[in-house]
Amino acid sequence: MVVLNIEAGRGIGDVKLGMTKEEVIQCILKYEAEYHRPEHMKNYFKNSFKVKYNSEGKVKLIEIPSELKEDFQCMFMNIDVFNTKAEKLVALLDEISKYDRDDTELDTCFTFPELGLILWRPDVLKEEDLEKEWFKELKPSIQEDTKKNLYFSSVAIIPRPSHSEH
Q1: φ/ψ of residue 32, rounded to 5
Q2: Would the pLDDT of 106 be above 90?
């Protein structure tokens, strides 16, 4: 499987912080040309790379969804971010650089400022929840969908404090 590198405070794959909209479009077109598959929706890669720009028209945030794990191994510092359970991923990254413990969305959103990294999931699910009665009472299809919350749903790259753009 092709590796999509997530670089601390720098970028995701070919899309980098500080790029212009035109440069991002060229990167997306390259992904479409190289990795498009018949089962992909129209604009699959355009919709997969969510990009925000600053007032100067330069990229200030790049976010990708976990669905990209079907096409790429999404790696941050040799860790597969979408195939590593959320609790383990947070613990591993917290050893490298502490997450922002003042974040009001703790458990669903973790920001690692010094890494320029944000991890997000819509709801919290822990391994022990799989044995609880409320989980067992769910329909099997709902259980499978709920199990996705053991992992993060998206990862975003932002400038690190020492490299932030104004």
Answers
A1: -60, -45
A2: no
Dihedral, CA of residue 166, residue 122, residue 148 and residue 89, to nearest 10: 50
Quick one: CA dihedral 17, 23, 27, 28, positive or negative? positive
Q: 54-78 burial, b for 16+ CB within 10 Å, e for fewer?
A: eeeebbbbbbbbbebbebbebbbee
- Give first-to-last CA distance, the chain, whole Å: 37
Half-sphere exposure of 24 (CA within 13 A, CB side): 24
DSSP designation for 138: S
pTM: 0.91
Tokens at 147, concatenated: 């199990």
Q: Which residue has the tokens 């899309």?
A: 15
Compute the distance between CA of residue 114 and CA of residue 97 in angstroms, rounded to an integer: 7
pLDDT at residue 102 is higher than 90: no
